[in-house]
């Protein structure tokens, strides 16, 4: 195991940003930067013993200054959508930027956690921690929040992302990583032949704006049923109202076995490359997004990423859970620790 630190570039504020390369003895490698606590690249070995980069991203720091797709981003303080771009804690209403048809998505795409320079600490030869203090009122959220994201690479070919947060006021905390994966390689085109399993008997249907209705319904008999593995493309164009609303898959799944801690929640595989990624988490929900609205973007190596060029598979609290009483709450009291772990395990 080893970690190498290099200068990635200079921020708009004139500060150095670094990129860290984590390598294990099996040939797996992850590149992460303290600018935005972003996952830049993830190299895994395919069945032909060739190394493939399966994470969409950019070669240069400057491209992450825009990063409209939020490739590889740590999203915070809240991932996904909040209806009306507002929420209430106790007797106070908090207003967020309206950046998604009158709603809020991913807190603030212009100056969220993915657009700030995090402090860093190399923990050992397999892990690096990024940490940041989000001030009271930043992005519209209450409380001074001390937050950290730790990337670890295991000898067993697992990328482990651990999140921690502690606020001096009651607040909303709901983080995740927004990497777009393509198990055929970031430069290989669409992801429709990727086979996916999601361990969820239920999902949360959406209405206009891709906002959950508040219902939790069975996936059985619908295109949302990924209990038995199927390719992303098999039913994505079905004449189904839920798929039409999101132009494909962009839905939250109510995961099974929510109260047992970290467990396997999903799996994705490329038959052509022989690459299988298992996903483990302790979170109640999983957002599965099939890149339906991706705009053409020039990524690493000059590759043009297009519609459905990658998929996101993101564990977190349900979307708009802050405003839906029946959903598990993402509110944390003053001094109450937020902590969660996601593992992307390659087998």
From TrEMBL:
This is Aldose 1-epimerase. It comes from Clostridium gelidum. Coiled coil: none annotated. Belongs to the aldose epimerase family. CDD domains: galactose_mutarotase_like. Its EC number is 5.1.3.3. It catalyses: alpha-D-glucose = beta-D-glucose. InterPro entries: Ald1_epimerase_CS (IPR018052), Aldose_1-epimerase (IPR015443), Aldose_1/G6P_1-epimerase (IPR008183), Gal_mutarotase_sf_dom (IPR011013), Galactose_mutarotase-like (IPR047215), GH-type_carb-bd (IPR014718). Keywords: Carbohydrate metabolism, Isomerase. It comes from the Bacteria. Pathway: Carbohydrate metabolism; hexose metabolism.
């Amino acid at each position: 195991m080893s970690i190498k630190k290099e200068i990635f570039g200079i921020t708009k504020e004139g500060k150095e940003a670094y990129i860290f390369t984590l390598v294990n003895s099996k040939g797996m490698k992850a590149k992460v930067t303290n600018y935005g606590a972003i996952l830049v690249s993830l190299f895994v070995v395919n069945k032909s013993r060739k190394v493939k980069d399966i994470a969409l991203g950019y070669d240069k720091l400057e491209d992450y200054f825009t990063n409209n797709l939020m490739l590889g981003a740590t999203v915070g303080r809240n991932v996904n959508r909040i209806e009306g771009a507002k929420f209430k804690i106790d007797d106070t209403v908090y207003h967020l930027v309206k950046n998604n048809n009158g709603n809020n998505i991913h807190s603030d795409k212009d100056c969220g956690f993915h657009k700030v320079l995090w402090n860093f600490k190399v923990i050992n030869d397999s892990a690096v921690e990024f940490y940041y203090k989000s001030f009271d009122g930043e992005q519209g959220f209450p409380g001074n929040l001390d937050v950290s994201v730790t990337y670890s690479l295991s000898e067993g070919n697992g990328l482990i992302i651990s999140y921690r947060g502690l606020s001096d006021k009651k607040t909303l905390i709901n983080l995740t990583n927004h990497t777009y994966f393509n198990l055929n390689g970031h430069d290989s085109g669409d992801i429709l032949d990727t086979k996916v399993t999601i361990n969820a008997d239920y999902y949360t249907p959406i209405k206009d704006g891709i906002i959950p209705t508040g219902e939790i319904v069975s996936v059985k008999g619908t295109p949302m049923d990924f209990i038995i593995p199927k390719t992303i493309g098999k039913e994505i164009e079905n004449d189904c109202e839920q798929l039409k609303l999101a132009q494909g898959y962009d839905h939250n799944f109510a995961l099974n076995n929510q109260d047992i801690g970290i467990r396997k929640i999903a799996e994705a595989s490329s038959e052509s490359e022989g690459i299988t990624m298992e996903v483990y988490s302790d979170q109640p929900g999983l957002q599965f997004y099939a890149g339906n609205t991706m705009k053409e973007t020039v990524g690493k190596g000059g590759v043009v990423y297009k519609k459905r060029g990658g998929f996101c598979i993101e564990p977190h609290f349900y979307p708009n859970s802050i405003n839906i009483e029946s959903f598990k709450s993402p509110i944390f009291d003053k001094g109450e620790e937020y902590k969660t772990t996601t593992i992307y395990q390659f087998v």
